[in-house]
Amino acid sequence: MKISVLTLGCKVNKYESDALIFELKNRGFDANDKLEFADAYIINTCAVTNEAEKKSRQMIERAKKFNQNAKVFVMGCASQNRVNQFEEKGVNFVIGTAGKKKLLDELENLGSKLFDLPTQYEDDLYSAQTLSRAFIKIQDGCNNFCSYCIIPYLRGRSRSRSLESIVNEVKKLPEYVNEIVLVGIDVSSFEIDGKKGLATLLEKLDCFGKRLRLSSMEDNLVDEEFLQRLKNLKNFCPHFHLSLQSGSDGVLKKMNRKYTTSQFLESVNLIRKYFPLAGITTDVIVGFPTETEQQFEETLEFVQKVNFSQLHIFPYSQRSGTVASKLYKDLSGQVKTQRLKKLEKVGNEMKLDFISKNDSGKVLIEEQNNGLLEGYTENYIKCYCQGEAEIGEVVDVKILKPYKQGCLCKIVKSEK
Question: Percentage of the chain surpassing pLDDT 90?
Answer without folding.
Answer: 85
